[in-house]
């Protein structure tokens, strides 16, 4: 991932290729008034000339998509398909998608990681709670990038290798940031605020006859960690379908990561096979260390998913929700299913490594 312009986050945040700073600062007020006419004029004003857009660097194109995306989501929130109102934006969005090798609209990366901080921050509402949610999501990406490097190491190693456990311990430290993020969200973002105020801005937008999801937190690809730890050979059809929907919204390097490891043997699968070959009552120390490290990571993932499910149940409860499905396109029931799968794999690792005791030969009168 070194050298990928998509990871030059400070440069992308600083970029303003559309000269949009002043106009986008007014978007929260337009949204508060549901001023569709003003939002339409704003989008039309920002649409660049195609020849000009074709000259931008990848980072400049990402920043432009970020800024156009705030207006796409705003118009759709007020019941207007943006490209019906401003059809001249279509070829620009398609060009930016090709230039960045991403979908032709903004994603969670544009909304959080590549979004400036401070007075240049792009938001739908201008509310401090929206900024807190952006920051909570933003904080997970450095750890996720690091975790995927170690996931690739785990995929190359066997559980008998001491490096297997070492890499898993590092993964545990990295994904622990996800738990910190969800705790921050619980503390600072009321479920009602997300469900009633922010969720409508993450609606699908139609582009060239296809619907594209908004910048949902579900696009944070924790599922790539799942992929190498257990999912590639221990999944179910509902989770597989969700991944197929989510994959196009991932960064190009992460889509390549999925392609390399999809259909492989997971860490849980390799550990289970190694344990099954051991005939002794106690496992070799290296295998025990690998099992303990893998169990630790799975417990952290289980904790994150349990807390995420709790938030989702509140945000999509019958007396609050405006939508049947989450902003990532999945129902709350899928979160429950993924939690169950994570728990089952953690339980499998724990049970596989329980110390096996040799049978005790009876002595004394009972032996007769």
Automatic annotation (TrEMBL):
Matching InterPro entries: PrnB, Trp/Indoleamine_2_3_dOase-like
Segments of this protein annotated with the region Disordered: 349-368
SUPFAM superfamilies linked to this entry: Indolic compounds 2,3-dioxygenase-like (SSF140959)
Pfam families cross-referenced by the UniProt entry: PrnB
Name of the featured protein: Monodechloroaminopyrrolnitrin synthase PrnB family protein
Organism whose genome encodes this protein: Streptomyces litmocidini
């Amino acid at each position: 991932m070194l050298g990928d312009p998509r990871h030059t986050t400070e440069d992308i945040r600083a970029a303003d290729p559309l000269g949009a700073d002043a106009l986008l600062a007014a978007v929260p007020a337009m949204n508060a008034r549901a001023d569709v006419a003003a939002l339409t004029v704003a989008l039309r004003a920002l649409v660049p000339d195609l020849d000009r857009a074709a000259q931008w660097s990848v980072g400049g194109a990402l920043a432009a998509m970020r800024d156009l995306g705030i207006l796409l989501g705003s118009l759709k929130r007020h019941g207007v398909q943006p490209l019906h109102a401003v059809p001249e934006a279509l070829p620009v969005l398609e060009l930016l998608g090709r230039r960045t090798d991403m979908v032709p609209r903004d994603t969670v990366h544009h909304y959080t990681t590549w979004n400036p901080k401070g007075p240049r921050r792009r938001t739908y509402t201008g509310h401090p709670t929206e900024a807190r949610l952006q920051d909570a999501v933003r904080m997970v990406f450095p750890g996720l990038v690091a975790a995927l490097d170690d996931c690739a190491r785990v995929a190359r190693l066997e559980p008998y290798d001491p490096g297997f456990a070492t890499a898993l311990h590092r993964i545990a430290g990295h994904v622990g940031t996800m738990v910190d993020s969800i705790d921050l969200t619980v503390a600072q973002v009321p479920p009602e605020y997300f469900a009633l105020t922010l969720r409508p801005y993450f609606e699908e937008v139609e582009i060239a006859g296809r619907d594209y999801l908004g910048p949902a937190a579900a696009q944070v690809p924790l599922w790539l960690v799942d992929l190498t730890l257990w999912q590639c050979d221990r999944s179910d059809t509902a989770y597989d379908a969700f991944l197929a929907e989510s994959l196009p919204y991932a960064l190009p390097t992460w889509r390549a990561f999925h392609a390399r490891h999809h259909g492989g043997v997971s860490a849980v699968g390799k550990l289970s096979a190694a344990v099954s070959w051991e005939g002794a009552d106690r496992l070799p120390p290296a295998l025990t260390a690998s099992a303990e490290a893998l169990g630790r990571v799975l417990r952290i993932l289980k904790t994150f998913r349990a807390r995420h499910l709790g938030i989702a149940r509140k945000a999509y409860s019958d007396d609050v929700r405006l939508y049947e499905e989450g902003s990532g396109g999945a129902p709350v029931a899928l979160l429950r299913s993924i939690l169950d799968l994570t728990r089952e794999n953690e339980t499998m690792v724990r049970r596989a490594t329980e110390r096996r005791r040799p049978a005790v030969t009876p002595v004394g009168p009972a032996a007769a």
